[in-house]
Amino acid sequence: MPSVVRIVGLGPGDPDLLTLGSLEALRAVGRAIVVLASPELALFLESEGVTLVRDRIADPDLFVRGSADAVDAFAASLDGEDIVLGVLGNPLSDFPGLPLLLRALERAGVRSELVPGMPRATLSAAISMPLVPLPAGSTHHSWPDLVEVMARLRRGCPWDREQTHESLVPYLVEETYEVVDAIEARSDADLCEELGDLLLQIVFHAQLATERGSFSIADVVDGLSNKMIRRHPHVFGDQAVSSVAEVWQNWDALKALEPSAATRTSRLDGIPRGLGALQRAQKMQDKAARVGFDWPDESGVRAKLAEEFEELEAARRDGDPAAIREELGDVIFTVVNLARMLKIDAEGAMRDASAKFYTRFTFMERRAETEGRKLGELSAGELESLWQLAKRNAA
Known about the structure:
This protein has about 400 residues and is mainly α. The protein has helices at about 20-30, 40-45, 60-65, 70-75, 90-95, 100-105, 125, 145-155, 160, 165-185, 190-210, 215-230, 235, 245-255, 275-290, 300-320, 320-340, 345-370, 380-395; strands at about 5-10, 30-35, 50, 85, 110-115.
């Protein structure tokens, strides 16, 4: 067995991105097993006097991913000399099999050393590196593969290279609503596909941030995981809760301690302005209700709704367009409050109502066409009769 296995990060795969520390570690030992290195990088290492030991790892992809069999086979193959194991990227972030390998070496009594390299998810990796070929299309891909796919797209596709956070906003919104459509259609196949499209948008934005040196997808995952653990002490800690209301109370208290809360002057701050109007209204009402600003039951909301209708009618009689708009907004806001009291998602209920109208209206169109007519040619009475028929027959 060798006395030392030095695990060295080779960077994204471009010789120009190999750090000086990694190159010195490779030269110092002189013998290296490199995993998934590009031909260009292999030739460069050999030109630097490093002897490459080939065919020591039967399945490099499985080895890097952390297959116990592949790692154990590699440890058993070591031949008694100090050697470098070169892995793409930084072994601490780009080598999932590292923990297994370190334990296998420890069991064998072999000392290990780590030499970091440039992580693969960097500006240079995304734009200039010759990426290692991805597994075949029939292979089951992993999270690292997806990050690699995004880096390749940014390097090789003219459209992807042109995108910015701002230009991607419409696609992010569209993919979100397509996920909602798949859920409401109760289609598992569509939901699986649309969740993938939404995930691509998240990885895309993270890749853009990585290229700016701002944050990476790893930072996104770390931040989210830490936030969920921090906000759920009743799951990840020893705090006990007895109801959903208590969970919400703890959630609000913990959010108030986070840095982002320091810039907020109101409990209602932080609700995205880009939300649908009904959804934003209901979120504001939820937050207000948590501090007791609410009716005891829905009867109070019903009385308020009647009051708002009277004010709307008064504004209509006065003929003031601004007042009519304001009072109509109050009516709709109160209807959202009623939905909240009834524990109904107002935005979802509105989507259901729109879908129902679409189904009935298109039934009317088709029925009129079978009679050789168009809806615009029908009288008000005929339209009403057709509407009632649609209500009885449209699915």
